[in-house]
Amino acid sequence: MSYIFITPNVHKFHHHFERPWTDTNFGNIFSMWDRLFGTFVYDDPKKIKYGLDVLDPAKDENVGYQFKIPLARM
Known about the structure:
By secondary structure, the protein is mainly α. It has one domain (8-71). It has 3 helices and no strands. It has helices spanning 8-11, 32-37, 63-68. 9% of the residues are buried. The mean pLDDT is 83.
């Protein structure tokens, strides 16, 4: 099914904590677009660690810090 459609296990890699995994599997319906543009990846979904590798892990549970992230200049 994932050869045609984006399944949850396929899209999960887009939410991995480190790059270049975050720059993959952008599609939300059809996986052909990621395959066409070379952004499709797949591996064992159990290997995924969620988050971002560019943020301060000491503040990851601070809600105020999380709300400021989209407004910060990085």
